[in-house]
Amino acid sequence: MGEFELIQRYFQASVAQADDGLVDGVVLGVGDDCALVQPTPGQVLAVTTDTMVSGVHFFSDDAPYDLGHKLLAVNLSDLAAMGAVPRWIVLNLALPAVDEAWLAAFSQGLLATAQRFGVRLVGGDTVRGQLAFGLTAMGEVPPGRALRRAGAKVGDLICVSGVPGEAAAGLAHRLSMRSGERLLPEEFAAQALARLQRPEPRVALGLALRGLASSAVDISDGLAQDLGHILAASGAAGNELGACLELAHFPLSPLLASLPQTLTWQYQLAGGDDYELLFTLPPEFMNCINELPCNVNVIGRIEAAPGLRLLAPDGSPFILERLGHDHFA
Ligand code: ADP
Ligand code: MG
Questions:
Q1: Is 60 exceeded by the pLDDT of residue 19?
Q2: Residues 318 and 265: beta-carbon distance below 8 Å
Q3: Alpha carbon of 33 to ligand 2 centroid (Å)
Q4: Which of 34, 125, 136 for mutating ligand 1's site (highest number of atoms within 8 Å of CB)?
Q5: Does pLDDT of 17 surpass 60?
Q6: Is-contact 85 207, C-beta < 8 A?
Q7: Assign residue 21 a region: left if phi > 0, alpha if psi is -120 to 50, beta otherwise?
Q8: Which ligand is nearest to the CA of 32?
Q9: 33: Cβ below 6 Å to ligand 1?
Q10: Percent of the chain residues past pLDDT 70, beyond the cut
């Protein structure tokens, strides 16, 4: 199978082309030198891209359906963190060879999730090379309404969606299985692996936070490190803000509670791969938390003194060994 047949079979056929007018703002989809899209008049375009490399971001034997889903989900998570409505995506694929079963499952995972979020694949690039893929996602947000990393104020509540830490437990479990051990009992293993391999982007939450959150970021590299981005961006020039996080207020699932305590804290604070939203909320909006479209917990506060202070449930300071993931550290 050649490059063009491959594109047509797996990435074009599923895209309905309207003969007369626009479907989902797509004037021209896959098949020409460029796609043509029609943004909603008056909206700002939000653009993001993420790359996933075999052996770095995933295992080569990961289920291709999950990889297709996750590639899209991590990009939709970035749009969610900006409060943008997802619209169009562009796919870059490097494949060592044409494996039709792999491609079919990968494209199904990607396109099923695209359909669920009302997103259209409008183009891409396909080359031979070491297994890697990238995706660019475009979304829309009204002018001045995007959620940004800058904007947190002293006294704001620090909030997080879902249960950060479970994805890291999933990764640790996978690695433990490779060395013939099992970190998690059977009852929790499937849940943790699902959190790692099928993250659910918080798109609805991002939209609900427009006009409420003073800053936001999605957790990809570890909660403490990603909070650091908010503290750096929100401070005055050269003058970072600080924060205090209380571990007693972090959501604790039975899965996380089954792990040794310091491991749980390490995963919650520095695990990464959560794709939850971490945001700050002015205290007068505290009552709005119950009306948000998913579970949200208040885990700390923004403070004027620079630095991150972590409090264990007994009130003693907790020192984190590693803040999060850095590709070049
Ligand atoms: P060009 O050489 O002009 O850049 P290509 O031959 O690379 O075009 O691609 C042909 C068409 O197929 C283009 O519309 C491109 O956007 C699309 N395309 C290529 N690879 C993919 C892919 N993996 N997924 C979706 N569309 C793709
Ligand atoms: Mg061309």
A1: no
A2: yes
A3: 4
A4: 125
A5: no
A6: yes
A7: left
A8: 1
A9: yes
A10: 96
Three-state DSSP state, 68: helix
Give helix then strand counts, H and E, for the chain. Answer: 9, 12
- The answer for residues whose C-beta is within 8 angstroms of residue 311's C-beta and 6 or more apart is 244, 245, 246, 247, 248, 317, 318
Burial of 207-223, coded b for 16+ CB within 10 Å and e otherwise, reads bbbbebbbbbbbbbbbb
Give percent helix, percent strand, percent coil of the chain, each to the nearest 5: 35, 25, 40
Q: What is the pTM of this model?
A: 0.94
* Ligand 1 centroid to residue 122 C-alpha, Å: 9
CA of 124 to the centre of ligand 1 (A): 5
pLDDT at 15: 52
**DSSP conformational letter for 42:** T
Distance CA 40, CA 26 (A): 11
Per DSSP, the residues of 190-255 read HHHHHHHHS----HHHHHHTTTT-SEEEE-SS-HHHHHHHHHHHHSBTTB--EEEEEGGGS---HH
Contact 2, 127 (CB under 8 A): no
Q: What is the DSSP string of 100-157?
A: HHHHHHHHHHHHHHHHHTT-EEEEEEEEESSSEEEEEEEEEE-TT----STT--TTPE
Q: Give residue for tokens 């207020």.
A: 249
> 86-134 pLDDT, tens per residue?
999 999 999 999 999 999 999 999 999 999 999 999 999 999 999 999 9
Tell me how far the alpha carbon of residue 250 is from its chain's centroid.
19
Would you say residue 21 has pLDDT above 90? no
Q: Is the CB of 2 under 6 A from ligand 1?
A: no
Q: What mean pLDDT is predicted for residues 252-260?
A: 96
| Joined tokens for residue 192 | 């943790």
